[in-house]
Write a structure and sequence with these properties.
175 residues; alpha+beta; globular
């Protein structure tokens, strides 16, 4: 019986020694080497963050140039790409249609101003939350513009608009 217990102990010790040796060899073999999967994932994440930051800057610059600086043609030339898909039911598709709409809007409402509150990016989508006013006395409209990017250019647009009320049941602002 004692030899059986002793044999079992030797086997367990042997397995323990082999496991320790394997772990030591494995750890030593990879020590100081580049952990490509982690570096690759980190680089990919950093690249995605940089792309999203660039897309936010472009989306904000586009709206600012088109409406605040009242240069819709220049904004379209710099930041839009055809085919430009429009989901606002009042505007047809295409860069030219955007320019026509924005030019007419600025003529009708020359004091239009977009006050950016926040911009959020998720992959190729950017959402801008802003307050659009048409005059100094206008309470404004809360706007969520969503644009989709391809290769650094805006190719699609959605928007949601809601008039800013005089009062709110919850006491919160829309911004």
């Amino acid at each position: 019986m004692k030899s059986h217990i002793l044999s079992r102990r030797v086997t367990l010790i042997g397995v323990g020694v082999l496991t320790t040796a394997a772990l030591t060899v494995g750890t030593t073999a990879f020590a100081g080497t580049d952990t490509t999967p982690k570096s690759s994932a980190a680089a990919s994440f950093a690249s995605q963050e940089a792309k999203e930051a660039r897309n936010k800057r472009i989306a904000l610059a586009f709206v600012d140039l088109a409406l605040n600086k009242k240069q819709p043609q220049k904004a379209a030339d710099l930041y839009l790409r055809d085919p430009y898909i429009q989901h606002n039911p009042q505007i047809t598709n295409g860069k030219a249609a955007f320019v026509t709409w924005a030019t007419n809007f600025i003529k009708a409402v020359p004091d239009v101003e977009v006050d950016f509150k926040r911009a959020v990016a998720d992959g190729d989508l950017v959402m801008i939350h802003s307050r659009l006013t048409t005059s100094a006395t206008d309470r404004g409209t809360a706007v969520a513009d969503i644009v989709r990017f391809e290769n650094g250019k805006i190719v699609e647009h959605w928007d949601v608009l809601q008039a800013v009320p005089e009062t709110a049941a919850n006491g919160n602002t829309m911004f």
